[in-house]
Amino acid sequence: MPSISALKNNIMRLNNKVNMDLYGHGIKTQKVYLVHDEMIVIVADNKRISALAALDSCGYNTSGINLVLLNLFKKRLKEALQQELGLSIRSILKDYDNATQTAVTNIVLKEPLADLIP
User: 48: Cβ–Cβ under 8 A, 6 or more apart, which residues?
Assistant: First the structure.
């Protein structure tokens, strides 16, 4: 397992890659926080998907579509983190605020990071 700095960079890279693959564009900004060696938190500023932004502006409720996309994103991110970084993940929780275009992703680990980082 890489150093903490390299781990954070790899997490940001994979988060951005999944975002590009699923939504067609990258993340504007993101920060990764390690919480008590048991959780990874990603705070990201995103660009709203153009089609969903258009529906939002016309008053359509896009919450169902948002939920499907969030679930698909979490599944893909979990697979990428496990395969490429060897992280043992219990759960990924994610929410997205349309108004501010901010996403927060909480990655709950099965094993403490200290067991994985030299």
Answer: 56, 98, 101
Q: Where are the beta strands (DSSP E) in the chain?
A: 29-35, 39-45, 89-97, 102-109
CA R_g for the chain:
15
Decide if 92 contacts 78 (C-beta within 8 A): yes
Residues 6+ apart with CB under 8 A from 44: 15, 19, 27, 28, 29, 30, 31, 102, 103, 104, 105
Q: What pLDDT is recorded for position 73?
A: 96
Per-residue pLDDT tens over the stretch 83-115: 999 999 999 999 998 889 999 999 999 988 877
The domains of the chain are located at 4-112
What pTM does this model have?
0.89
Return the pLDDT at 6.
Answer: 92
What is the CATH class of 4-112? alpha beta
